[in-house]
């Protein structure tokens, strides 16, 4: 017994002395600023050593047949740590699942409130969680991409959800059917008709207007007008504007009775839509379009002018120009003739200086047959004398005189037209461009017209571009290059001009300069449309 206690005291004293020596050695070797870090390291290693001893004791306790309860008490810290770890993992899993559902619902709410940017963030966060319906989540993410105009990404996700030959998510099939119809409407071509039919037949909401329009486009591309009309009629119950499309298809079938009946229906339905929400510009435009088609031109004019009084709208202006051209054609065919019709030609170009039907009629009028040339001159002079459409009349008379070879009279009338109306240079430029694009162009007359436009505004890039094209057609390459370079200085989009100049300098023999213009065009194009990051 004495020997046991003696050995115990000796070992205890030896451990105390060894600990003191280690502490003294550490104090000697460790700088004062390192001491706190050394102390923290010792505490941490001691904790880990104790935890390891506790875990080892617990394992020994479980492995022994004869178990000591003292060993179990020593192992309690390790058991508590294990229980805490398992509990924390389970709670994290539950919270992650709850957060995934929460983010998915928030994304759906953001889409409903038309906040697709926020919806993208929520859906992307939900993707990191488990136990969320991945199909619903991907569909929501695709819709958010579509709403933010990232349609390529939306298409990829939808194709994953609804492949060809697979009964995929019906909503995704519907999206792909409608998206295909939009592409076909824009390009008038279809790459895979069978895939389109698969998506149409496996989509949900089969009676909805967008899907019925897709069916109509499907049959229209295949040349089946009857089925296309039937589907467009179903869509028209929800979207009255489709009645105008139905009328157009009846016209292609040469069924004029059906055209008149359909246009009357379109007018009635679009009037109801307009009266429900007269402040919506689209409703006003569609109603005015139906009035235009059925020949109620004064009502269409009134409706569009009322819309312009509330705010400028380019679509209103284009349709007003079409209304006045229709009035011009009606008056020109009447007994009153040109003197009554000419004012409508002026009004059309007042509302849209680029309206091609108006410009075409102006050119056709200026190119009267020799038998009618003097009659046309007299009619225009009478308009000028009475003060009706003086600027446009001077412009037309100048065009007539140029085509007749009376350059002095032509120049006089053109200058007077430009002085009377600041918009005349734009019309002169547009008429010159139109004349230069004809099958047998009168390039001399076109050049005379565009010269008046350039002289009135030398810095206008569109005028210089038109004249450069005319010089190029005439074979005057150096003058063409000079105009293109002048246009390049103020052009909003330099790429087309740089490409023209590259080809032109190749013809002039300056290959190095042509290369520089191509390089500049390539850089400008890359800067204007950078590739979307993945």
SSE layout and pairing:
Blueprint: H1 2-29, H2 35-63, H3 69-112, H4 116-126, H5 134-147, H6 151-161, H7 170-187, H8 193-201, H9 209-221, H10 225-236, H11 242-252, H12 256-276, H13 281-293, H14 297-310, H15 314-332, H16 338-351, H17 356-366, H18 370-385, H19 390-403, H20 407-420, H21 424-436, H22 443-456, H23 461-474, H24 477-490, H25 495-508, H26 511-528
User: How helical, in percent, are the residues?
Assistant: over 70%
Looking at the structure, the CATH topology of the domain at 42-61 and 71-158 is: Serine Threonine Protein Phosphatase 5, Tetratricopeptide repeat
Distance between the termini: 81 Å
Radius of gyration: 41 Å
CATH superfamily of the domain at 42-61 and 71-158: Tetratricopeptide repeat domain
Plain-language structure description:
The protein is mostly helical and 534 residues long. It has a domain at 42-61 and 71-158: Serine Threonine Protein Phosphatase 5, Tetratricopeptide repeat. 79% of the residues lie in helices and 0% in strands. It is built from 26 helices and no strands. It has helices spanning 2-29, 35-63, 69-112, 116-126, 134-147, 151-161, 170-187, 193-201, 209-221, 225-236, 242-252, 256-276, 281-293, 297-310, 314-332, 338-351, 356-366, 370-385, 390-403, 407-420, 424-436, 443-456, 461-474, 477-490, 495-508, 511-528. It is extended.
